[in-house]
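Dear Dr. H.,

I hope your travels went smoothly. While you were away I took the liberty of generating a structure for the chain from your last submission, since the lab meeting agenda had it listed for discussion. I wanted you to have the full record in hand beforehand rather than looking at slides cold. The sequence, exactly as received, is reproduced here:
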Amino acid sequence: MAKTTDNNELKTEYIKNRSFNDSHFKDMIVSYLRSFGGATRGELNTLLSSKLSDVLTDEQKIRKIGNILSALKKDGTIQLSEKKRWVLVEVLVKLRLNKSVKRTSSDIYIFYVR
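The corresponding predicted structure, in token form, is as follows:
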């Protein structure tokens, strides 16, 4: 029985120390931003820190989250807004389009390209 218990403890410890791949964390960030419209770096740190491997120090976790955010920014998925909040680029495009739409008397929408 002791051997089985030790084996189960090792499995549990392995799962706690193993981390998800980066695409899982990217999906979590995108889902969070879609749900709440944006997030500060602190909010994203809180979201992801407990999900990262227990082997990493707090400093390493912060750096890893920063690397994931940089990758999402580089591929054009997210952007840091003027208010220092991470937002989805697709949301920013919609907001900019809505602000640049003028309604004419014949109900035809004219889009101004910036």
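Two observations you may find useful: Strands lie at 78-80, 86-88, 101-103, 109-111. The longest strand covers residues 78-80.

With kind regards,
E. W.
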